[in-house]
Amino acid sequence: MHHMFNRHRGAPALADGDAGDLFAGEWFEIAECDYEYMLDILPPLFMRGDMFALSEYMTGSVTSVFFALSIDGCTRWFHGYCDLSDRGSPDRMKAAIVDRETRPVRAMTREERLEHIWSCTHDDYRGYAGERWPAAMRGKRTVLVYGGDRGTVLKLLDDLTDDEVSAKLPVQLRHLPQPVAA
Q1: Helical H runs in the chain?
Q2: Please, which domain of life does this record's source organism belong to (predicted)?
Q3: Is the distance from CB of 137 to CB of 154 less than 8 angstroms?
Q4: Any bridge partners for residue 79, and if so which?
């Protein structure tokens, strides 16, 4: 959980103090013990039957909201970053989590695959494009990939090929289908 809290460490937006867009809308599953720990650590800003928000803000009006949701008859626990300047943000996040987690076929979009790669890549092998990159690419996320004859190369996360994405995913996720567009 704490690794996921810090997954944007080093982002230029954090240094600029303008990281609300970086966090707002993100969510991930956590263990019940992590949910209980966070409930006990600080008094909640608000608490409803299946969710509570931390009283400390991550940045601006964005704070952590924790959810205990019944999905397919089982209770599961999630953390998300909600922008509380929008009062409906926690309820929309809850709906998004339930929608994603109740899909009939396990599938991951390309964006979800890239987010998974970013989250599980060690800090030493990911970062942000800096001064050596063209101005339009600076601040974008980068990861090291094996480039065959070229050896290990640094690439923009968004520019990974399908083969590179597949190679960087854990074995159990490599062959999940892409969701079919309606």
Answers
A1: 2-5, 12-16, 20-23, 32-41, 89-101, 110-120, 162-168
A2: Eukaryota
A3: no
A4: 28, 66
- Per-residue burial over 21-48, b if 16 or more Cβ lie within 10 Å, else e, is ebbbebbbbbeeebbeebeeeeebeeee
Q: Per the structure, how many domains does the chain have? A: 2
CA distances 30 to 4, 54, 70, Å, are 10, 15, 14
Cβ pair 51, 63 in contact under 8 A = no
Name the residue with tokens 């810090």: 6
Assign 126 to helix, strand or coil: strand
Enter the tokens of residue 134.
């063209």
Does residue 9 share a domain with residue 68?
yes
Residues 23, 142: Cα–Cα separation, whole Å: 18
**Which two structure tokens, joined as six digits, stand for 89?**
């943000």
pLDDT digits (tens, 9 = 90+) for 32-80: 999 999 888 878 888 888 999 988 777 778 888 999 999 888 999 999 8
Instruction: Determine the structural domain holding residue 56 and report its residue range.
Output: 2-101
Q: Say if residue 77 is in the same domain as residue 7.
A: yes
Do the domain assignments include residue 178?
Answer: no
**What percent of the chain is helix, strand and coil (3-state, nearest 5)?**
40, 30, 35
